[in-house]
Inverse folding.
């Protein structure tokens, strides 16, 4: 998917509800990226991912400034493991081509079959397929907007293959490209998302459908801006469908099947998260004045010359809200995880652990509060070190009534006591037979 | 996450090594499990790339597909997999014992006792991870509707003879694995995370290599560094040093090594097939060894008291499917009908309640978690007062007072349960908290004392004794009585169509990947 | 299966500015429901009833009319308390109506008050109740009941809280049924995964009504348009936040209900929030932002203090029900929480302040109940994160819709930010009807309204 960003807004295509960023912010964001570095394009996937961890100021700033997080992570020495297999790419491309073959006849049949019965089916040769090529993203977006306007006014069936849509992201346009948009005779525009994961017996991987729905919500949001303008110009009541068409391979075949997916929830989230992106300005303003994430690339544009610890310091000037879920959603996650673990943050064990810990923020604090052993000997073996040794610092006094007033402390202390009692009462553990050493790699056996 | 587990994870993080979550092993482990480590092709639904399979940890059978787009090669793989798996599954079919069971006589409608066969042991399939178990289910779904040439001479792409049968068995094992506490198909990551808390998150525990690194760190390494090495260390070519446990491959492996090797194979370069075999085997072997290492760690734990009871249910499940196969029943349908779905849900809910209760009864560390959650309490008996029920035939209903530091969430008249030495449960109701003394409370025994006018000896706890009462039942039963599928009411769409879709094969296209 | 039908949600219901006669609207709805129940051609009738819209009154009336027309019937409710309540209401309205109370074999499941009713017979055996005009029991008991001949008519109460598999177990007992329930309250759930059936019309873990309508989309669907419980200050918020597609109105007008205190406030935050709630129907007592465990001692104590002051200040309530002000006694006040341990902590705090007789319970157990004033510990107060449990629409809806006069919410500051920072990465199952608005939106809507009635307080 090709996406472009940070070009001058195309007059007709961009919803102009929000002000463009102030020159000072634009300058500041350029400084953060480094001189001469083009901002990284935010595609629909990246925009949808904003909702993965909206509490993370680090991510909001880096995305808002268009910093290349993957390159940053690499330069920090914690590269992301993200990447796609070429087998998966090839399969995705061949499936999309198959779905769109014959002027999208199969695609329209799938869509029509999911409309209320009685809707007339598009006749062969009746489906318009306007040419959408134009120079530059703003040209393509303008061409798309024009095609949508004409299709709506014409009142027939139109298939837009890879239209380009503009989304306002914190005052700058980002361009996103859905697989297809179908305009129906009744003026409803339907986003079509083609994925290569299968629908088996009518069901599909819910995590993948969820990701597709969030991505489609970005397209619907972008289309709504165009639809509002078309309606405002009196060129027919244009409406963007709140259900998108998800097309996937059926069972184990190469034949396409489809499902209508209600994306109202995801759309509400997308709108809210995009609106919140304006806080990038406020985050940037709070940074020390000379902060930059410039990698100081060599002339080949690939090798970072900035020392990793200097970069790490720069990254540290803005707070992250690391949680293990980030590992699958953010290129910087391995770096943030390492920091989170070094600090002993409780979130490094999962978001869910915080619920019962009250204001305790680190593992050390929790263990001290629990009066539990805080052994730090690494590699002390597989088997239970039942808390036979009392810690030197027993933590808060179990009999101190003031401590008991905090239910988090009281519960932790009871948990530690119950755990220790149960382990002590259990039979001594059988030693574990260690598999014979001698594997080439000491760790990966 | 329950607080007691959070605490165990934090202890593990601080110590640099995993901490126990249990004091016994809560799952049955076969003496002779079949381990299967599958790999799949990226982007394809159910196009296998390879597998290591077998019962001998030193001599796994390596199966590979040199070109997953080639239907013949995929079928050859499945045929070999069937040849490796089916004899193992069949191997438990003939050693049987007999059990009595109540059945409704179809003619008289009366309940009669019948003798039925129960297999003395059952197979156990161990896969590396939950994704591996899901993959077994997927293979089951993709193969059970295939037609062999013998079944249908007209079938466009006939499957090798035993492949549909393999699909039916994998489907059965996959469905059984959804029953809480069942052990016919087990993911190693689930087994290990049930018994140990690592110093990382539950999400990161899904990586078998990282999980084992915490539980059994190599000498001189902390669990954390070993786990980080296991999940992300790469060699100079960017290939993971410890390949993922599958079924998905590492994209870098696909792009850097696998794709070029496949291209050589497609071009007919001599030795390319062997090279692919080696590549795929090299990705599989570390995971194979890891599964067996996990097996050894778990075997060292003593089994919990109810593990054999639950395994018996697995044996029933195995025996029942053996009977269905022998009776020539069609493959399991694509989707359950309303009654079957409701029955499955009910039996799984019951199994979950039983598992939760049994694990707590078998293991003081699990019970500690229930006590912390206010679902059980333990304490020392301080007084016992004789009392009787009202009514024409007064029965003993003694009042037992105990002192506890636990804080159960009791409501008036809450029902309580306590294990007796014979394994049965004694019932009681909560009466009141004690006046004055903190942590004192009184319960009234309502059962488990025999039928006499005086309680059976030893059935009433004595002062000084430590007792543990639970708010949950020990042998929960459940589930509504559901109609037969042919009696499905109008609210649920009426009886399902008489001809189940079960037997129709999936549509195929020439370029299909399975 | 191809996903949900491609149609837009139902158009909004009443909510315009035209003159509205609540009594006439409710009567018209009830008449239509009874007509379809007694004379309709379809085997089922579904009635959506928002909080306090007279659901029990409808069930009692439908049962009496069916019985009077010579149709014996069975009634399915979800809990023993609901069954006993229905039997008492039936006997109160029609003391001569023979009613059977079918119960389980365990002792103590039946309200002793039933024993005093001459025409009510209670038994654990269905055979003992043969010939009774109405037989009432829980779904769980009906599911284990076998009869030679079923009923022609049934009423299923709290049908949205009943699971599909439970309906499957009892539906063979009747030919046709009136299904009544509140779609905005807590959905049924399963303790084990049921994803493999997600999207199927008969998903056993879905609500009974979802399955019923998926298989019988042409059943007549009605709704009760007027809440007699919620005051004019609460109905619009609850309707907008939780029932955007089936709006309802309050049966009373802005001046019809009022709260007054015998003594003036002492200027403390607690008294000021009570004054605010008396004046506007809503009050938010906001404590300083802080991450706390569930049983946040300060918040728990604040809840108890609000109740204490409510009683101490001689609160009286005036409503359309009585000629003059009635004292708001402990029995007319309830405290709602999300978790059981929070309820236990509030009970302990109340006991410490010498307050007894106030119901303190979780949202699950407060479903279907009604009080003059409720004090709610906000489900997200002090939490470091929001979970699906805390965001569930039905939980907030139950807590915000139990009161006839006023609702005071006690909460830590910072919930709006918590909601904004909540990750939105939910999986999506194909074919499952999306519940909309979701809890996240409903929480934002309720918070925005509560913010207008905020009293900051540092304990």
């Amino acid at each position: 998917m090709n996406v472009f960003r940070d070009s001058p807004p195309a007059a007709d295509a961009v919803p102009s509800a929000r002000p463009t960023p102030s020159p000072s912010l634009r300058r500041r964001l350029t400084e953060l990226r480094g001189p001469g570095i083009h901002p990284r394009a935010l595609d629909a996937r990246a925009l949808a991912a904003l909702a993965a961890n909206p509490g993370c100021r680090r991510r909001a700033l880096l995305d808002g400034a268009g910093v290349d997080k993957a390159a940053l992570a690499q330069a920090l020495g914690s590269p992301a493991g993200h990447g796609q297999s070429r087998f998966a790419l090839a399969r995705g491309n061949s499936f999309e081509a198959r779905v769109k073959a014959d002027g999208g006849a199969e695609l329209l049949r799938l869509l029509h079959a999911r409309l209320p019965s009685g809707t007339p089916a598009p006749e062969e040769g009746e489906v318009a397929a306007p040419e959408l090529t134009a120079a530059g993203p703003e040209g393509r977006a303008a061409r798309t907007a024009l095609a949508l306007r004409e299709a709506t006014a014409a009142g027939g069936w139109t298939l837009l293959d890879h239209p380009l849509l503009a989304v306002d992201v914190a005052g700058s346009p980002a361009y996103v490209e859905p697989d297809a948009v179908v305009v129906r005779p009744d003026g409803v525009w339907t986003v079509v998302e083609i994925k290569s994961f299968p629908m088996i017996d009518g069901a599909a991987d819910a995590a993948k459908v969820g990701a597709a729905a969030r991505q489609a919500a970005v397209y619907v949001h972008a289309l709504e801006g165009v639809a509002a303008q078309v309606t405002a110009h009196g060129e027919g009541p244009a409406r963007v469908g709140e259900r998108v068409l998800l097309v996937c391979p059926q069972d184990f075949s190469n034949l396409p099947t489809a499902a209508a997916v209600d994306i109202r929830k995801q759309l509400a989230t997308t709108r809210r998260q995009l609106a919140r992106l304006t806080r990038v300005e406020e985050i940037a303003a709070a940074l020390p004045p000379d902060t930059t994430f410039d990698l100081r690339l060599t002339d080949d544009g690939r090798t970072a010359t900035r020392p990793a610890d200097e970069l790490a310091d720069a990254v540290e000037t803005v707070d992250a809200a690391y949680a293990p879920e980030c590992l699958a959603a953010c290129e910087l996650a391995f770096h943030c995880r390492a920091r989170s673990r070094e600090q002993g943050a409780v979130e490094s064990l999962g978001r869910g652990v915080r619920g019962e810990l009250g204001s305790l923020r680190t593992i050390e604090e929790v263990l001290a509060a629990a009066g539990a052993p805080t052994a730090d000997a690494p590699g002390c073996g597989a088997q239970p070190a039942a808390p036979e040794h009392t810690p030197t610092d027993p933590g808060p006094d179990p009999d101190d009534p003031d401590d008991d007033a905090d239910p988090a402390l009281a519960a932790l202390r009871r948990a530690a006591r119950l755990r220790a009692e149960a382990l002590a009462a259990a039979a001594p553990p059988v030693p574990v037979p260690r598999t014979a050493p001698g594997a080439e790699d000491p760790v990966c056996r | 996450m329950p607080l007691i587990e959070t605490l165990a994870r934090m202890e593990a993080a601080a110590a640099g090594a995993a901490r126990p979550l249990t004091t016994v092993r809560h799952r049955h482990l076969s003496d002779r499990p079949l381990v299967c480590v599958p790999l799949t092709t990226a982007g394809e639904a159910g196009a296998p790339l390879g597998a290591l399979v077998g019962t001998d940890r030193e001599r796994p059978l390596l199966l590979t597909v040199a070109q997953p787009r080639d239907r013949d090669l995929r079928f050859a793989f499945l045929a070999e997999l069937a040849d490796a798996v089916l004899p193992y599954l069949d191997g438990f079919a003939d050693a049987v014992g007999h059990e009595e069971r109540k059945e409704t006589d179809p003619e008289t409608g009366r309940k009669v006792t019948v003798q039925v066969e129960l297999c003395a042991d059952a197979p156990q399939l161990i896969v590396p991870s939950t994704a591996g178990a899901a993959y077994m289910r997927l293979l089951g779904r993709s193969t059970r509707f295939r037609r062999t040439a013998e079944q249908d001479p007209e079938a466009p792409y006939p499957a090798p003879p035993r492949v549909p049968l393999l699909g039916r068995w994998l489907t059965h094992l996959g469905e059984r694995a959804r029953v809480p506490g069942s052990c016919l198909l087990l993911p190693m990551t689930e087994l290990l995370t049930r018994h140990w808390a690592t110093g990382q998150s539950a999400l990161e525990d899904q990586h078998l290599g990282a999980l084992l690194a915490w539980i059994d760190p190599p000498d001189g390494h902390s669990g954390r560094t070993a786990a980080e090495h296991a999940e992300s260390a790469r060699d100079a070519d960017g290939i993971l040093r410890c390949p993922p446990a599958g079924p998905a491959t590492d994209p870098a492996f696909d792009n850097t090594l696998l794709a070029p090797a496949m291209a050589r194979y497609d071009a007919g370069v001599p030795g390319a097939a062997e090279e692919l075999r080696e590549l795929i085997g090299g990705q599989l072997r570390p995971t194979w060894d890891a599964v067996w290492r996990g097996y050894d760690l778990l075997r060292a734990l003593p089994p919990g008291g109810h593990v054999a009871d639950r395994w018996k249910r697995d044996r029933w499940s195995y025996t029942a499917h053996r009977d269905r196969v022998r009776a020539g029943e069609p493959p399991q349908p694509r989707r359950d009908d309303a009654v079957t779905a409701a029955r499955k849900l009910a039996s799984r809910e019951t199994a979950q309640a039983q598992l939760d209760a049994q694990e707590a009864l078998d293991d003081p560390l699990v019970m500690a978690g229930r006590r912390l959650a206010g679902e059980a309490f333990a304490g020392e008996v301080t007084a016992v007062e004789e009392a009787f029920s009202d009514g024409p035939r007064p029965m003993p209903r003694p009042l037992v007072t105990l002192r506890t530091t636990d804080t159960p969430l009791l409501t008036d008249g809450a029902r309580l349960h306590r294990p007796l030495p014979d394994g049965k449960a004694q019932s009681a109701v909560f009466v009141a908290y004690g006046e004055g003394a903190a942590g004192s409370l009184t319960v009234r025994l309502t059962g488990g004392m025999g039928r006499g006018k005086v309680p059976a000896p030893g059935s009433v706890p004595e002062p000084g004794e430590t007792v543990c009462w639970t708010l949950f039942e020990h042998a929960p039963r459940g589930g509504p009585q559901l109609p037969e599928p042919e009696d499905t009411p109008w609210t649920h769409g009426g009886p399902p169509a008489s001809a189940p879709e079960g037997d129709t094969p999936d549509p195929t296209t020439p370029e299909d990947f399975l | 299966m191809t996903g949900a039908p491609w149609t837009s949600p139902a158009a909004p219901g009443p909510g315009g500015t035209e003159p509205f006669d609540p009594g006439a609207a409710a009567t018209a709805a009830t008449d239509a429901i009874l007509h379809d129940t007694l004379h309709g051609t379809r085997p089922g009738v579904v009635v959506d009833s928002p909080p306090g819209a007279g659901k029990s009154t409808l069930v009692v009336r439908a049962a009496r009319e069916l019985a009077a027309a010579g149709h014996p019937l069975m009634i399915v409710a979800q809990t023993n308390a609901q069954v006993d309540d229905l039997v008492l209401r039936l006997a109160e309205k029609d003391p001569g109506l023979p009613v059977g109370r079918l119960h389980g074999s365990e002792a103590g499941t039946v309200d002793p008050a039933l024993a005093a009713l001459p025409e009510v017979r209670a038994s654990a055996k269905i055979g003992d109740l043969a010939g009774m005009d109405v037989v009432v029991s829980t779904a769980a008991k009906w599911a284990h009941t076998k009869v030679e001949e079923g009923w022609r008519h049934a009423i299923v109460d709290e049908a949205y809280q009943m699971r599909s598999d439970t309906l499957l177990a009892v539906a063979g007992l009747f030919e046709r049924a009136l299904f009544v329930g509140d779609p905005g309250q807590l959905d049924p759930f399963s303790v084990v995964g049921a994803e493999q059936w997600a999207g199927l019309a008969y998903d056993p873990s879905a609500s009974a009504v979802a399955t019923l309508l998926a298989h019988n989309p042409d059943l007549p669907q009605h709704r009760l348009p007027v809440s007699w419980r919620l005051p004019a200050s609460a109905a619009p918020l609850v309707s907008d936040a939780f029932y955007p597609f089936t709006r309802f109105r309050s049966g009373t007008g802005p001046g019809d209900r009022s709260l007054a205190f015998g003594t003036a406030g002492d200027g403390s935050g607690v008294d000021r929030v009570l004054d605010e709630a008396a004046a506007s129907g809503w009050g938010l007592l906001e404590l300083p932002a802080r991450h706390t465990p569930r049983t946040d001692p300060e918040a728990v104590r604040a809840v108890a203090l609000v109740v204490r002051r409510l009683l101490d200040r001689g609160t009286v309530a005036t409503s359309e029900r009585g000629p003059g002000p009635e004292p708001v006694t402990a029995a007319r006040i309830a405290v709602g929480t999300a978790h059981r341990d929070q309820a236990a902590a509030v009970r302990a705090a109340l006991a410490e302040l010498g307050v007894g007789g106030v119901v303190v319970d979780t949202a699950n157990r407060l479903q279907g109940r009604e009080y003059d004033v409720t004090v709610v510990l906000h489900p997200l107060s002090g939490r470091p994160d929001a979970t699906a449990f805390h965001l569930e629409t039905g939980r907030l809806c139950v807590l915000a819709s139990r009161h006839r006069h006023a609702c005071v919410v006690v909460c830590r500051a910072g919930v709006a930010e918590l909601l904004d920072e909540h990750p939105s990465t939910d999986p999506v199952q194909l074919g499952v009807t999306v519940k909309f608005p979701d809890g996240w939106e409903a929480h934002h809507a309720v918070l925005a309204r509560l913010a207008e009635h905020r009293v900051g307080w540092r304990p």
